[in-house]
Amino acid sequence: MEPDLNALAVFALVAEERSFRAAADRLGVTRSAVSQTIRRLEETLGIALVQRTTRSVSLTEAGERLFAETAPAIAEMRAAIETTGNLRGLPRGQLRLAVSSIAERFLAGPFLAAFAEANPQLQIDITVTDEEFDIVAEGYDAGVRLGEVIEQDMIAVSVAGDERQLAVCAPAYRDRFGLPSHPSELAGHRCIGWRPAPKVAPYRWEFAEHGKEFSVAVAPEITTNDMALMIKLAVAGYGITFGMEASFRAPIERGELVSVLEEYCPRFAGFYLYYPSRRNTAPKLRALIDHVQRFR
Fold first, then answer.
1. Under CATH, which architecture does the 163-268 domain have?
2. What beta strand segments (E) does 140-216 contain?
3. Residue 68 in contact with residue 137, Cβ under 8 Å?
4. Are 276 and 136 in contact, with CB atoms under 8 Å apart?
């Protein structure tokens, strides 16, 4: 059976977008043309790849397996074609990024605004997420996460220097309830916790003492996936919260928050831009890598 590479490329777009219409828009064709291409591919393979309803599009088990196994090769082909087409080396096209919500320096307005200003022919699509997934299989060009959770087969470029996490509270909370002198005492305090997604256990607060790392499973009275809400609650004097120092810098400088247990909060390798190892890096991604290295 001779593979239909064009049909596989169309299938990959449908799998990425989970939408026939969105895939058609990216290709500049009609929704019907995309649907017919997928139908022919399913007939050729003799198995259903996509489940269609009036409201949504999802992949069958066979579709998920086909997408997982072909996505890296299709991404390689896209990068090679884009590199070849952009003979002048000008970054162009859509740059898709998956960025951790706590990557403060990367998500800061000046950094991204300067990059967009310098690359007017780029369409930058940023998904802010703390879910862990395969960026290649999901159609992203690159991601930004803490270095410790990046897969070893990825190329990683430091976005900034070392980071650290801090426990913080408002002066009003300190004056009313006092402060813990050791992380083990957090169980006796009101805590505001973070979880990356529903049905996931609250994040354990990580500390170090005498060079040994340990974590504390606090029992937060309020848990959320929104760092901004955590900060607001802490500033309001509700309790102690925990997160990246950069997230708290502004309210600490304004005197709205104070650090807690700082001597137990070590520094560690911070955030990295990461992307798959490819022989030919697309100009759009190369432009971002260069921008990151200039801003470090």
1. 3-Layer(aba) Sandwich (3.40)
2. 142-146, 154-158, 163-169, 191-194, 205-209, 212-216
3. yes
4. yes
Q: Is the pLDDT of residue 201 over 50?
A: yes
Q: pTM score, two decimals?
A: 0.62
Distances (CA, A) of 21 to 16, 18, 55, 86, 195: 12, 9, 12, 27, 33
Residue 196 DSSP symbol: S
207-225 pLDDT per residue, tens:
999 989 999 989 899 999 8
Could you tell me which residue, 75 or 103, shows the higher pLDDT? Answer: 103
Amino acid at 19: S
Q: What is the distance of C-alpha 159 from the center of its chain?
A: 14
CATH 3.40.50.2000 for domain 86-161+269-296, yes or no, is: no
Q: Is 168 helix (H, G, I), strand (E, B) or coil?
A: strand
Q: Quick one: CA dihedral 3, 4, 9, 13, positive or negative?
A: negative
Locate 196 and state its tokens. 């990356």
In the structure encoding, which two tokens stand for residue 219, read together? Answer: 């029992």
Could you write out the DSSP letters of every residue in 121-162? TEEEEEEE------TTTTT-SEEEEEGGGS-TTEEEEESSS-
SS3 161: coil
* pLDDT tens for each residue of 50-71: 988 767 788 999 989 988 888 8
Going by the DSSP 8-state scheme, the letter that residue 120 receives in this structure is: T
Q: Are 192 and 248 in contact (CB under 8 A)?
A: no
Beta bridge partners of residue 142, listed in sequence order = 97
∠ Cα 240 241 243 (to 5°)? 150
* Separation between Cα atoms, residue 289 and residue 13, nearest integer Å: 25
